Every structure is written in C-alpha cells, then in structure tokens.
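Subject: for your reference before the review

Hello V.,

The reviewers asked for a structural picture of the protein, and I figured it would be easier to keep everything in one thread rather than splitting it across files. Below is the amino acid sequence we used in the manuscript, unchanged from the supplementary table.
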Amino acid sequence: MVKQRGGFRRVRVGLATAVLAVGVGIGGVPAEAATVPRTVALGTVALADWSNSSGYGSGDPWGGSGQGGYGQGSGSGSGSGSSTADVDSTTATKAEQRGVVLIDTELTYEGATGAGTGIVLTSDGEIVTNYHVVEGATSIKVTVASTGRTYTATVVGHSASTDIALLQLKDASGLTTATLDDDTLGSGDTVTAVGNAEGTGTLTAAKGKVSDLSTSITTEAEGSVPAETLKGLIETSADVVPGDSGGPLIDSEGEVVGLDVAASSGTTSATIDGYAIPIDDAIAVVKQILTGTATSTVQIGARAYVGVQVTDTATTYPNASYGGYSTGSSAGSAGEDASGAAVAAVVDGSPAAKAGIEAGDTITGVGSTTIGSASDLSTALAKYGVGDEVKVTWTDASGTTQHATVTLAASPTA
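And here is what came back from the structure prediction:
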C-alpha cells in the first residue's frame, strides 16, 4: 500500500528553488503512478495529485527560489490521474459545501492543467489550500462551490515545508466562510473529507473515523518530486482521493478540523487512509503570511528567480525538454565532467538571458556559494528576494568561466 496526495494535479513537495518546487499532499500526479510501499516506521505516502500534462514537465524549472528538490517533472507524456480504488463517498450536501472552493490551475511552462480544493477564510476572498495544489501555476481560477461564481486568484504567500498556501481572490466580497473547529478532536471521532475528487468539478464527501491525532508520513518521491516527511497529521479512514488536496476535513458539527493533504493508495475503501493537516497548524502559517514578514519556512509573494531550467549535469537528461525547449542530444561539453547546475533552457528576457547565460552552460556559483548541483542552485537562490542583485558564475560550452551580476526577477509561477 502506498500513500498518495489528494490534490488534483501533479504531486508537489517543495518546488526546488532553481528548478521546481514540488508540493506535499494530494496534489497532481496520476494516482496510478504511486508504487512505493509504505514503510513500517513512518509510512511512505504517494501523493495522489491529479493532473493533465504533456511533455517533460516540472513545477518551476526557471530558477525560482522555492524549497525542496529538483528535477525535470512529475512525468513525461500525459495522464488522466484517475483513481482505480473502490472509493466510499457521496455528493457533498449543501452544509458540507459551505465555505469550500474548487481550484483550477494552468501550468503554461509545463503544458499542464491541475485542480484541487480550498477553504474560504474571509468574506473578501482569503483562501487556504495546500501549496502543492497551486505550485508552479501560471494561472489560478477559484470557483465557489455553493454559487458557481469563478474568481481569479493570486498567491499571497506559502510554506513549502508545511504545504500551506494563502490565496486572495480578486474583487471578492460577501463570501460564505467555513466554520473552523473550536473544540478538541478525539480519536474515534467521525469526520468527513470534502473535496474536488478526481477533479470533476463536483464536491464529494467521504466519511471516516479518526485513527491517530499525530501521524508522521513520508511521501513517495515521484518524478522530480523528492520524498518528504510531514509530521503531526490527523489520520482517518476517510477515502481521500486525487483532487481532495486542500479540502476540509470536517467533524460531526460541520466544523473544519483539518486540510486534506495525503492518502494511502489501495484497491478498496478499506485500504485507503486519509491524512490531514490540523486546522490550527494551517492557520498558524496563514497568520504568519498575513504579517507580511518572510521566515526561513514562509515565502511572501512571488519567489525570486533567475530564469533557467537546470539539471545536475549536462548529461543527466540528454534529451530533456520543457515548455518547448530542448537540450538535444548533448547540452555541451562544459558540464559533462564538471559539477554544477547544467543549463537546459533559458527564459527569454529573464535575468539569466540578460547576463548571457545559454543552454549548455553550467552554473557553478551564486554569490560566495559554490554550486555543485541543481539542488545547490535552488538552495542558494532561496536566500534572496525579488530585486536582489547577486553575482552568478558559470562555465560556457567552450569551458570558459564567466561572471555577471544579475537582478533577480519575480517568478512567473506560483
């Protein structure tokens, strides 16, 4: 049995700073892609995100300053991400739909679309969801389930390590908010997971019972999404499936006790376990975002990016392509024997392009930090903000070392 994320889109655990930022929870990788068995200690959870994608995609390959691993994407080709499990759920009632929204995303650079769920916190459109639901998105549309009205959304801030994002709807007012839990959840309590199951655009409700109030899980590494451990989760027997990511886990009083984030993968409802982030933990991150002050784990607004797609070495992905860019059969001789972040593609007009960095080059330094891999570049860039100036060192295809000071731009993706 494996554990999967429940968001309708590619699985994302913390997009890497330099390449992509993949998210944790039920996000966007096809459910059938999860194959790693659960470990005895923590349990390996395969993220059950549902997505439609084409090409060799990734979350944010353009050198954004996120957190997490790096890679080329959650899978080549296309996938419907439909679950094959026998899920025990029903159409959500009007009461269960209260304060719940459907989230649809476009990932232009990946040639992909995705979907998930969110919770309305304020009448003027503050929405909390899992970061992996919106990570890497170039467009976010949010539909209020009870009214059918759709809004454009922006990411106010996020925490990749806790998989929480706060969205703001444009020109929203008078929205019905969800009721957050004001008492204590107990083991054995009946709960219901509400979400955009399978990304159908219709909310469903899956009932279950709380089996653990502080579970630790390890998500399965999927494509470019590295494995990640989440602690202090609520474990239930509710059938959480792809598309449910960011949706509410509600108690018998209809109050939100958690955000659905991951699930086990089984063939019957008896073998599916759901996992949710306690609502108090999610709100703590939201409050930090609303202060407007970034921390080591909370990003406010857009991430800084340099505008390159990178791999560990020039030969790691000899034919990697992304968003219409291709490295061909060879990315240049400079990176074949040298460590660094090999550049597979450069965004037109980006800081990297203005500095003269080209596909086939290998980035070896950012500021005073030596870059030995794509993940090193991610980590180094995460220390900077939009508008910061930083010295970048790279080796071009001829083997010549180059230097330039670039001004980091705002990432075009969430």
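For the response letter, the relevant points are probably these. Residues 17 and 378 are 3 Å apart (CA to CA). Residues 6-50, 53-84, 222-226, 314-337 have pLDDT under 50 and may be disordered.

Happy to draft the paragraph if you're swamped.

O.
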